[in-house]
Protein backbone atom coordinates (compact mmCIF):
# COMPACT_ATOMS: atom_id res chain seq x y z
CA UNK A 1 0.00 0.00 0.00
CA UNK A 2 1.45 3.39 -0.96
CA UNK A 3 1.74 6.16 1.66
CA UNK A 4 -0.05 8.82 -0.37
CA UNK A 5 -3.23 7.78 -2.10
CA UNK A 6 -3.54 9.50 -5.48
CA UNK A 7 -6.58 10.04 -7.72
CA UNK A 8 -5.47 8.60 -11.06
CA UNK A 9 -7.33 8.40 -14.37
CA UNK A 10 -6.11 5.79 -16.84
CA UNK A 11 -7.28 6.48 -20.42
CA UNK A 12 -7.51 3.47 -22.72
CA UNK A 13 -8.23 -0.21 -22.14
CA UNK A 14 -5.66 -1.93 -24.32
CA UNK A 15 -3.02 -4.09 -22.67
CA UNK A 16 -1.15 -0.97 -21.50
CA UNK A 17 -4.18 0.60 -19.82
CA UNK A 18 -5.42 -2.52 -18.04
CA UNK A 19 -1.97 -3.25 -16.62
CA UNK A 20 -1.58 0.36 -15.45
CA UNK A 21 -4.99 0.26 -13.76
CA UNK A 22 -4.27 -3.10 -12.13
CA UNK A 23 -0.86 -2.15 -10.72
CA UNK A 24 -1.87 1.34 -9.55
CA UNK A 25 -5.12 0.12 -7.93
CA UNK A 26 -3.20 -2.73 -6.26
CA UNK A 27 -0.92 -0.12 -4.71
CA UNK A 28 -3.92 1.54 -3.09
CA UNK A 29 -4.51 4.48 -5.44
CA UNK A 30 -8.02 5.62 -6.48
CA UNK A 31 -8.02 4.59 -10.12
CA UNK A 32 -10.67 5.35 -12.75
CA UNK A 33 -10.19 3.45 -16.00
CA UNK A 34 -11.78 5.22 -18.98
CA UNK A 35 -12.61 3.51 -22.28
CA UNK A 36 -13.91 5.43 -25.28
CA UNK A 37 -15.94 2.43 -26.40
CA UNK A 38 -18.69 0.83 -24.31
CA UNK A 39 -17.17 -2.60 -25.00
CA UNK A 40 -13.67 -1.99 -23.65
CA UNK A 41 -11.58 -3.97 -26.17
CA UNK A 42 -13.54 -3.47 -29.39
CA UNK A 43 -11.05 -1.03 -30.96
CA UNK A 44 -7.89 -2.09 -29.11
CA UNK A 45 -5.01 -3.31 -31.22
CA UNK A 46 -4.25 -5.57 -28.22
CA UNK A 47 -7.37 -7.62 -29.05
CA UNK A 48 -5.79 -9.05 -32.21
CA UNK A 49 -2.24 -9.59 -30.90
CA UNK A 50 -0.38 -12.88 -30.88
CA UNK A 51 0.60 -12.29 -27.24
CA UNK A 52 3.91 -14.06 -27.47
CA UNK A 53 6.19 -13.23 -24.54
CA UNK A 54 9.37 -13.53 -26.58
CA UNK A 55 12.18 -11.44 -25.05
CA UNK A 56 14.91 -13.46 -26.80
CA UNK A 57 13.43 -13.95 -30.29
CA UNK A 58 12.50 -10.28 -30.47
CA UNK A 59 16.15 -9.21 -30.08
CA UNK A 60 16.49 -10.25 -33.71
CA UNK A 61 15.26 -6.73 -34.52
CA UNK A 62 14.60 -4.99 -31.18
CA UNK A 63 16.88 -2.97 -28.88
CA UNK A 64 18.23 -4.62 -25.67
CA UNK A 65 15.80 -2.57 -23.54
CA UNK A 66 12.93 -4.68 -24.93
CA UNK A 67 14.60 -7.82 -23.68
CA UNK A 68 15.18 -6.25 -20.24
CA UNK A 69 11.56 -5.04 -19.89
CA UNK A 70 10.35 -8.39 -21.22
CA UNK A 71 12.37 -10.36 -18.68
CA UNK A 72 11.06 -8.09 -15.90
CA UNK A 73 7.51 -8.66 -17.12
CA UNK A 74 7.58 -12.47 -17.38
CA UNK A 75 7.24 -13.18 -13.62
CA UNK A 76 4.64 -10.40 -13.32
CA UNK A 77 2.54 -12.15 -15.97
CA UNK A 78 3.02 -15.52 -14.28
CA UNK A 79 1.91 -14.08 -10.95
CA UNK A 80 -1.14 -12.24 -12.36
CA UNK A 81 -2.46 -14.66 -14.98
CA UNK A 82 -2.62 -18.39 -14.26
CA UNK A 83 -2.88 -19.37 -17.93
CA UNK A 84 0.55 -18.29 -19.17
CA UNK A 85 2.02 -21.17 -21.20
CA UNK A 86 5.73 -21.34 -20.46
CA UNK A 87 6.61 -23.85 -23.17
CA UNK A 88 9.20 -21.79 -25.06
CA UNK A 89 9.30 -20.92 -28.77
CA UNK A 90 10.36 -23.13 -31.68
CA UNK A 91 11.95 -21.44 -34.71
CA UNK A 92 12.24 -23.37 -37.99
CA UNK A 93 12.99 -22.71 -41.65
CA UNK A 94 12.64 -24.71 -44.84
CA UNK A 95 15.97 -26.26 -45.98
CA UNK A 96 16.34 -23.59 -48.71
CA UNK A 97 16.12 -20.89 -45.99
CA UNK A 98 18.79 -22.32 -43.67
CA UNK A 99 20.76 -19.07 -43.98
CA UNK A 100 17.79 -17.30 -42.33
CA UNK A 101 18.01 -19.68 -39.39
CA UNK A 102 21.75 -19.04 -39.05
CA UNK A 103 21.18 -15.28 -39.17
CA UNK A 104 18.41 -15.53 -36.56
CA UNK A 105 20.68 -17.61 -34.29
CA UNK A 106 23.47 -15.01 -34.56
CA UNK A 107 21.16 -12.12 -33.71
CA UNK A 108 19.49 -13.74 -30.71
CA UNK A 109 20.58 -15.57 -27.54
CA UNK A 110 19.40 -18.19 -25.05
CA UNK A 111 18.52 -20.80 -27.65
CA UNK A 112 19.49 -24.41 -28.35
CA UNK A 113 19.96 -25.86 -31.83
CA UNK A 114 17.71 -28.85 -32.50
CA UNK A 115 17.91 -31.67 -35.04
CA UNK A 116 14.89 -33.32 -36.68
CA UNK A 117 14.41 -35.85 -33.85
CA UNK A 118 14.48 -33.14 -31.18
CA UNK A 119 11.95 -31.07 -33.16
CA UNK A 120 9.70 -34.12 -33.31
CA UNK A 121 10.07 -34.63 -29.53
CA UNK A 122 8.87 -31.07 -28.91
CA UNK A 123 6.17 -30.94 -31.59
CA UNK A 124 5.19 -34.42 -32.81
CA UNK A 125 3.01 -32.95 -35.59
CA UNK A 126 6.11 -31.44 -37.22
CA UNK A 127 7.75 -34.90 -37.55
CA UNK A 128 9.85 -35.19 -40.69
CA UNK A 129 9.22 -31.60 -41.80
CA UNK A 130 12.33 -29.70 -40.65
CA UNK A 131 15.95 -30.83 -40.37
CA UNK A 132 17.03 -28.18 -37.91
CA UNK A 133 15.53 -25.55 -35.65
CA UNK A 134 16.15 -23.27 -32.67
CA UNK A 135 14.47 -23.67 -29.30
CA UNK A 136 14.06 -20.70 -26.95
CA UNK A 137 13.10 -22.49 -23.71
CA UNK A 138 12.70 -19.29 -21.66
CA UNK A 139 9.81 -17.84 -23.66
CA UNK A 140 6.04 -18.05 -23.15
CA UNK A 141 2.70 -17.17 -24.71
CA UNK A 142 -0.88 -16.54 -23.73
CA UNK A 143 -4.32 -16.01 -25.21
CA UNK A 144 -4.58 -12.21 -25.48
CA UNK A 145 -8.36 -11.88 -25.16
CA UNK A 146 -8.48 -14.03 -22.09
CA UNK A 147 -5.52 -12.13 -20.62
CA UNK A 148 -7.04 -8.68 -21.29
CA UNK A 149 -10.32 -9.71 -19.66
CA UNK A 150 -8.50 -11.25 -16.71
CA UNK A 151 -6.24 -8.25 -16.01
CA UNK A 152 -9.21 -5.87 -16.34
CA UNK A 153 -11.08 -7.98 -13.77
CA UNK A 154 -8.05 -7.93 -11.46
CA UNK A 155 -7.93 -4.12 -11.75
CA UNK A 156 -11.59 -3.93 -10.75
CA UNK A 157 -11.07 -6.43 -7.92
CA UNK A 158 -8.25 -4.20 -6.67
CA UNK A 159 -10.71 -1.28 -6.55
CA UNK A 160 -10.39 0.42 -9.96
CA UNK A 161 -13.61 2.14 -11.08
CA UNK A 162 -14.52 1.86 -14.76
CA UNK A 163 -16.12 4.41 -17.06
CA UNK A 164 -16.78 2.82 -20.46
CA UNK A 165 -18.32 4.54 -23.46
CA UNK A 166 -16.91 8.00 -22.74
CA UNK A 167 -13.69 9.89 -23.41
CA UNK A 168 -14.20 12.35 -20.54
CA UNK A 169 -11.48 12.59 -17.93
CA UNK A 170 -13.07 12.83 -14.45
CA UNK A 171 -12.46 16.12 -12.63
CA UNK A 172 -10.07 16.08 -9.66
CA UNK A 173 -7.43 13.69 -11.03
CA UNK A 174 -3.96 14.12 -9.52
CA UNK A 175 -2.50 12.30 -12.54
CA UNK A 176 -3.75 11.12 -15.92
CA UNK A 177 -2.05 8.07 -17.45
CA UNK A 178 -2.73 8.29 -21.18
CA UNK A 179 -2.71 4.80 -22.74
CA UNK A 180 -4.78 5.53 -25.84
CA UNK A 181 -2.46 3.75 -28.27
CA UNK A 182 -2.47 5.27 -31.75
CA UNK A 183 -5.33 7.66 -30.78
CA UNK A 184 -2.76 9.62 -28.73
CA UNK A 185 -1.22 10.82 -31.99
CA UNK A 186 -3.22 14.01 -31.38
CA UNK A 187 -0.77 14.74 -28.51
CA UNK A 188 2.34 12.81 -29.59
CA UNK A 189 3.52 14.15 -32.93
CA UNK A 190 6.14 11.47 -33.61
CA UNK A 191 3.88 8.49 -32.86
CA UNK A 192 3.23 6.43 -35.99
CA UNK A 193 1.06 3.47 -36.89
CA UNK A 194 2.43 0.11 -38.02
CA UNK A 195 -0.34 -1.99 -39.46
CA UNK A 196 -0.55 -5.63 -38.43
CA UNK A 197 -2.77 -8.21 -40.09
CA UNK A 198 -3.53 -11.64 -38.68
CA UNK A 199 -5.68 -14.69 -39.25
CA UNK A 200 -7.42 -17.02 -36.82
CA UNK A 201 -7.98 -20.54 -38.07
CA UNK A 202 -9.29 -23.68 -36.41
CA UNK A 203 -8.51 -27.35 -36.90
CA UNK A 204 -8.37 -30.43 -34.72
CA UNK A 205 -5.99 -32.16 -37.16
CA UNK A 206 -2.87 -30.61 -35.64
CA UNK A 207 -1.80 -29.44 -32.22
CA UNK A 208 1.19 -27.41 -31.11
CA UNK A 209 2.34 -26.69 -27.57
CA UNK A 210 4.16 -23.45 -28.26
CA UNK A 211 4.47 -20.65 -30.85
CA UNK A 212 6.23 -21.77 -34.03
CA UNK A 213 8.13 -19.16 -36.05
CA UNK A 214 8.72 -20.07 -39.67
CA UNK A 215 11.56 -17.95 -41.03
CA UNK A 216 11.48 -16.79 -44.63
CA UNK A 217 13.38 -13.96 -46.36
CA UNK A 218 10.16 -12.18 -47.39
CA UNK A 219 7.24 -13.68 -45.43
CA UNK A 220 8.32 -14.68 -41.94
CA UNK A 221 5.31 -16.14 -40.13
CA UNK A 222 4.48 -17.20 -36.63
CA UNK A 223 1.69 -19.40 -35.43
CA UNK A 224 0.44 -19.26 -31.85
CA UNK A 225 -1.70 -22.13 -30.53
CA UNK A 226 -4.77 -20.95 -28.62
CA UNK A 227 -7.08 -23.17 -26.56
CA UNK A 228 -9.83 -25.22 -28.27
CA UNK A 229 -7.93 -25.90 -31.53
CA UNK A 230 -7.60 -22.25 -32.56
CA UNK A 231 -4.39 -20.93 -34.11
CA UNK A 232 -3.40 -17.30 -34.52
CA UNK A 233 -1.28 -16.67 -37.62
CA UNK A 234 0.68 -13.43 -37.62
CA UNK A 235 1.54 -10.98 -38.71
CA UNK A 236 2.23 -8.39 -41.35
CA UNK A 237 4.33 -5.33 -40.45
CA UNK A 238 3.31 -2.48 -42.75
CA UNK A 239 4.17 1.20 -42.33
CA UNK A 240 0.61 2.49 -42.46
CA UNK A 241 -2.18 3.92 -40.26
CA UNK A 242 -4.82 2.11 -42.30
CA UNK A 243 -7.22 0.06 -40.16
CA UNK A 244 -9.15 -1.27 -43.17
CA UNK A 245 -9.80 -4.96 -43.86
CA UNK A 246 -7.01 -7.45 -44.56
CA UNK A 247 -5.84 -7.33 -48.21
CA UNK A 248 -5.93 -10.37 -50.49
CA UNK A 249 -2.12 -10.26 -50.72
CA UNK A 250 -1.69 -10.38 -46.93
CA UNK A 251 -4.38 -13.02 -46.53
CA UNK A 252 -2.61 -15.20 -49.10
CA UNK A 253 0.75 -14.72 -47.39
CA UNK A 254 -0.59 -15.59 -43.93
CA UNK A 255 -2.66 -18.58 -44.98
CA UNK A 256 -0.12 -19.77 -47.57
CA UNK A 257 2.65 -19.76 -44.98
CA UNK A 258 0.49 -21.78 -42.59
CA UNK A 259 -0.08 -24.29 -45.36
CA UNK A 260 3.70 -24.34 -45.93
CA UNK A 261 4.25 -25.15 -42.27
CA UNK A 262 1.91 -28.13 -42.45
CA UNK A 263 -0.36 -29.14 -45.33
CA UNK A 264 -3.10 -30.21 -42.87
CA UNK A 265 -3.75 -26.49 -42.29
CA UNK A 266 -5.25 -26.59 -45.79
CA UNK A 267 -8.36 -28.18 -44.28
CA UNK A 268 -8.61 -25.71 -41.37
CA UNK A 269 -11.58 -23.38 -40.98
CA UNK A 270 -10.84 -19.64 -41.46
CA UNK A 271 -12.40 -18.04 -38.39
CA UNK A 272 -11.39 -14.41 -38.85
CA UNK A 273 -9.00 -12.10 -40.67
CA UNK A 274 -8.28 -8.88 -38.75
CA UNK A 275 -6.10 -5.80 -38.95
CA UNK A 276 -5.17 -3.03 -36.51
CA UNK A 277 -2.43 -0.54 -35.75
CA UNK A 278 0.60 -0.97 -33.51
CA UNK A 279 1.58 2.39 -32.01
CA UNK A 280 5.32 3.08 -32.44
CA UNK A 281 7.89 5.83 -31.97
CA UNK A 282 10.69 6.28 -34.55
CA UNK A 283 13.10 4.04 -32.58
CA UNK A 284 10.39 1.41 -31.86
CA UNK A 285 11.12 1.69 -28.12
CA UNK A 286 8.22 2.26 -25.68
CA UNK A 287 8.23 5.54 -23.80
CA UNK A 288 6.74 7.07 -20.68
CA UNK A 289 6.48 10.76 -21.55
CA UNK A 290 5.88 12.98 -18.52
CA UNK A 291 4.10 16.25 -19.19
CA UNK A 292 3.46 17.67 -15.72
CA UNK A 293 0.49 15.66 -14.42
CA UNK A 294 -0.06 13.66 -17.61
CA UNK A 295 2.03 10.56 -18.31
CA UNK A 296 1.83 9.07 -21.82
CA UNK A 297 2.65 5.36 -21.91
CA UNK A 298 2.88 4.54 -25.57
CA UNK A 299 4.85 3.25 -28.54
CA UNK A 300 4.83 -0.40 -27.48
CA UNK A 301 4.99 -1.43 -31.15
CA UNK A 302 5.31 -5.25 -31.37
CA UNK A 303 5.89 -5.60 -27.64
CA UNK A 304 2.70 -4.55 -25.84
CA UNK A 305 2.15 -7.87 -24.07
CA UNK A 306 5.85 -8.41 -23.55
CA UNK A 307 6.53 -5.11 -21.79
CA UNK A 308 3.27 -3.69 -20.30
CA UNK A 309 3.68 -5.20 -16.80
CA UNK A 310 7.18 -3.74 -16.34
CA UNK A 311 6.07 -0.34 -17.66
CA UNK A 312 3.15 -0.30 -15.20
CA UNK A 313 5.63 -0.75 -12.34
CA UNK A 314 7.85 2.02 -13.81
CA UNK A 315 4.88 4.40 -13.66
CA UNK A 316 3.94 3.36 -10.11
CA UNK A 317 7.55 3.89 -8.94
CA UNK A 318 7.66 7.31 -10.58
CA UNK A 319 4.40 8.45 -8.97
CA UNK A 320 5.48 7.26 -5.55
CA UNK A 321 9.23 8.05 -5.48
CA UNK A 322 9.93 10.05 -8.68
CA UNK A 323 12.35 7.25 -9.68
CA UNK A 324 13.08 7.33 -13.42
CA UNK A 325 14.01 4.41 -15.63
CA UNK A 326 16.32 6.35 -17.94
CA UNK A 327 15.79 4.07 -20.92
CA UNK A 328 12.05 4.69 -21.14
CA UNK A 329 11.24 8.00 -19.40
CA UNK A 330 11.16 11.31 -21.23
CA UNK A 331 10.42 14.19 -18.86
CA UNK A 332 9.28 17.29 -20.75
CA UNK A 333 9.41 20.70 -19.08
C1 LIG B 1 -1.27 -8.58 -35.37
C2 LIG B 1 -0.53 -8.16 -34.13
C3 LIG B 1 0.20 -9.10 -33.42
C4 LIG B 1 0.87 -8.72 -32.26
N1 LIG B 1 1.57 -9.67 -31.54
C5 LIG B 1 2.19 -9.34 -30.37
C6 LIG B 1 2.85 -10.32 -29.60
O1 LIG B 1 2.91 -11.49 -29.97
N2 LIG B 1 3.46 -9.92 -28.42
C7 LIG B 1 3.41 -8.63 -27.98
O2 LIG B 1 3.98 -8.33 -26.92
N3 LIG B 1 2.79 -7.67 -28.72
C8 LIG B 1 2.18 -7.99 -29.90
N4 LIG B 1 1.56 -7.04 -30.66
C9 LIG B 1 1.68 -5.63 -30.25
C10 LIG B 1 0.65 -5.23 -29.23
O3 LIG B 1 -0.62 -5.69 -29.62
C11 LIG B 1 0.65 -3.70 -29.10
O4 LIG B 1 1.92 -3.28 -28.68
C12 LIG B 1 -0.40 -3.29 -28.07
O5 LIG B 1 -1.66 -3.71 -28.48
C13 LIG B 1 -0.42 -1.79 -27.82
O6 LIG B 1 -1.32 -1.64 -26.74
P1 LIG B 1 -1.96 -0.25 -26.35
O7 LIG B 1 -2.70 -0.51 -25.08
O8 LIG B 1 -0.93 0.82 -26.39
O9 LIG B 1 -2.98 0.11 -27.54
P2 LIG B 1 -4.43 -0.49 -27.88
O10 LIG B 1 -4.50 -1.94 -27.61
O11 LIG B 1 -4.75 -0.04 -29.26
O12 LIG B 1 -5.40 0.22 -26.84
C14 LIG B 1 -5.70 1.60 -26.89
C15 LIG B 1 -7.08 1.78 -26.29
O13 LIG B 1 -7.36 3.19 -26.11
C16 LIG B 1 -8.72 3.39 -26.43
N5 LIG B 1 -8.96 4.81 -26.70
C17 LIG B 1 -8.72 5.51 -27.84
N6 LIG B 1 -9.09 6.80 -27.68
C18 LIG B 1 -9.58 6.91 -26.42
C19 LIG B 1 -10.11 8.00 -25.65
N7 LIG B 1 -10.21 9.23 -26.15
N8 LIG B 1 -10.50 7.76 -24.38
C20 LIG B 1 -10.39 6.51 -23.83
N9 LIG B 1 -9.90 5.44 -24.51
C21 LIG B 1 -9.48 5.65 -25.80
C22 LIG B 1 -8.95 2.48 -27.62
O14 LIG B 1 -10.33 2.24 -27.82
C23 LIG B 1 -8.20 1.22 -27.16
O15 LIG B 1 -9.04 0.39 -26.37
C24 LIG B 1 0.85 -7.37 -31.83
C25 LIG B 1 0.09 -6.43 -32.52
C26 LIG B 1 -0.60 -6.82 -33.67
C27 LIG B 1 -1.43 -5.79 -34.40
Topology (elements, then pairings):
Layout: E1 7-11, H1 15-26, E2 30-35, E3 52-53, H2 64-80, E4 89-93, H3 98-107, E5 112-115, H4 116-122, E6 132-136, E7 140-141, H5 144-157, E8 161-164, E9 175-178, E10 192-202, E11 212-215, E12 221-226, E13 230-234, E14 238-239, H6 248-261, E15 269-280, E16 287-291, E17 294-298, H7 304-321, E18 329-332
Parallel strand pairs: 1-2, 1-9, 2-8, 4-11, 9-17, 16-18
Antiparallel strand pairs: 3-7, 4-6, 5-6, 10-13, 10-14, 10-15, 11-12, 12-13, 16-17
Flavin-adenine dinucleotide binds at residues 11-17, 34-37, 43-46, 48-52, 167, 179-181, 183, 196, 198, 234-235, 276, 278-279, 298, 300-306.
Question: Can you describe this structure?
Answer:
This protein has helices at residues 15-26, 64-80, 98-107, 116-122, 144-157, 248-261, 304-321; strands spanning 7-11, 30-35, 52-53, 89-93, 112-115, 132-136, 140-141, 161-164, 175-178, 192-202, 212-215, 221-226, 230-234, 238-239, 269-280, 287-291, 294-298, 329-332. The protein has 333 residues and is α/β, with parallel strands linked by helices. It folds into 2 domains: 7-51 and 143-189 and 283-332, 3-Layer(bba) Sandwich (FAD/NAD(P)-binding domain); 89-137 and 192-280, 2-Layer Sandwich (D-Amino Acid Oxidase, Chain A, domain 2), CATH 3.30.9. The strands form 3 sheets. Strands 4, 5, 6, 10, 11, 12, 13, 14 and 15 form a 9-stranded mixed beta sheet that branches. Helix 1 (15-26) packs parallel to helix 5 (144-157), helix 1 (15-26) runs parallel beside helix 7 and helix 2 (64-80) packs across helix 7. It is globular and about 65 Å long. The mean pLDDT is 96. The structure holds flavin-adenine dinucleotide. Flavin-adenine dinucleotide binds at residues 11-17, 34-37, 43-46, 48-52, 167, 179-181, 183, 196, 198, 234-235, 276, 278-279, 298, 300-306.
Amino acid sequence: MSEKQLNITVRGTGIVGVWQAFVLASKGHNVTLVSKTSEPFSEASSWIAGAMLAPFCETESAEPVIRRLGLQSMPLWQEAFPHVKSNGTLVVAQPRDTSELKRFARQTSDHATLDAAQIEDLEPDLAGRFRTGLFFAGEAHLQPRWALTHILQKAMDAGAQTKFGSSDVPAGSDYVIDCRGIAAKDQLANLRGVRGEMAIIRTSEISFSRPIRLLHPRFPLYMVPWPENYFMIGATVIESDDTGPVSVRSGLELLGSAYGLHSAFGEAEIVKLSANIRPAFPDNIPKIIVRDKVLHVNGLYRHGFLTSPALAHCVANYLETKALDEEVFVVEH
